[in-house]
Amino acid sequence: AQKVTQAQTEISVVEKEDVTLDCVYETRDTTYYLFWYKQPPSGELVFLIRRNSFDEQNEISGRYSWNFQKSTSSFNFTITASQVVDSAVYFCALSEGTSGTYKYIFGTGTRLKVLA
Amino acid sequence: KAGVTQTPRYLIKTRGQQVTLSCSPISGHRSVSWYQQTPGQGLQFLFEYFSETQRNKGNFPGRFSGRQFSNSRSEMNVSTLELGDSALYLCASRTGPVQETQYFGPGTRLLVL
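YS: structure for the whole thing
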């Protein structure tokens, strides 16, 4: 069965610290997609990144970087030099096509608090 | 391009009433999904519509229903509201029901008293 686990419920860091958010997934499919979304207090989920199961290259976008490791079924997200504006709930999601359409399964989210 | 829009943004209802929420997808997106988000259950998938047909359904009672119009706009309806239906209802759109990225709207916050 497909499952996404975000074991860290809440993380607090001081501004400028680096922080890594963990995501572990389970799937039987060989073709699947992984996503990270950010949910600020306003409520809207903001898309951050998508990776497919065939692309294990790490990705860096400004202060954000993602480490995808199929061997450990993990897709971790690192924020370098965190800022107060990074405070939000971050969701990892898995999408696979076992049902014929690609349904999203979300983790429970990690609340990140960046303190000034 | 305008993003996903949802109306209304906030809603207060009483138990037993029914409610209809609306979602307009990004232009060109034909797939619309609905999610319920609560502190206890997290983000749960309700259903997905593509070309006016329901393609996928989550584990929710029949009180939760939806539809999609020919212009891809979607509505979801909850009948006989219960206190536990209080939640943030999020709509997401994508070009089709396959692996494209979903883009979310701001949500409708429903409070049932």
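YS: worth flagging: The first strand of chain B starts at residue 5 and ends at 7.
IM: good catch. Also The radius of gyration of chain B is 13 Å.
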